[in-house]
Amino acid sequence: MSVKDAVAKRFLELCAERGIRINELANLSGVTPSTAYSMMDSRRRDISILTIKKFCDGLDMTLGEFFSTEEFDMLEQEIK
């Protein structure tokens, strides 16, 4: 799994836990819904750390809390 896919998956899980939709996360985070939906698009390969931070702010969590999961710990090395 790519880092970007892991980020998208994590946000989907957090939204499900909180009972909100992606467009609601966008509104809470001060970003456009199109930004949120493009982050979920598997064809898009990049996502900025600033966007991740804004979504974390909208969910009232730190970047450390967001990335502190086994999923991120188990990602393969990007340098090959």
Following the backbone from N to C, one meets helices and strands in this order, namely HHHHHH
Instruction: Tell me the count of domains.
Output: 1
Please report the total strand number as a whole number.
0
> In CATH's first tier, which class applies?
Mainly Alpha
Describe it.
The protein has one domain: Orthogonal Bundle (434 Repressor (Amino-terminal Domain)). The protein starts with a helix and ends in a 7-residue tail after the last helix. The chain has 80 residues and is mainly alpha-helical. The mean pLDDT is 91. The chain contains six helices and no strands.
Q: How do the helices and strands line up, and which of them pair or pack?
A:
Layout: H1 3-18, H2 22-29, H3 33-40, H4 49-58, H5 63-67, H6 70-73
What tags apply to this protein structure?
80 residues; mainly alpha; 434 Repressor (Amino-terminal Domain); 6 helices; 64% helix
Q: What can be said about this structure in brief?
A:
With 80 residues, the chain is mainly alpha-helical.
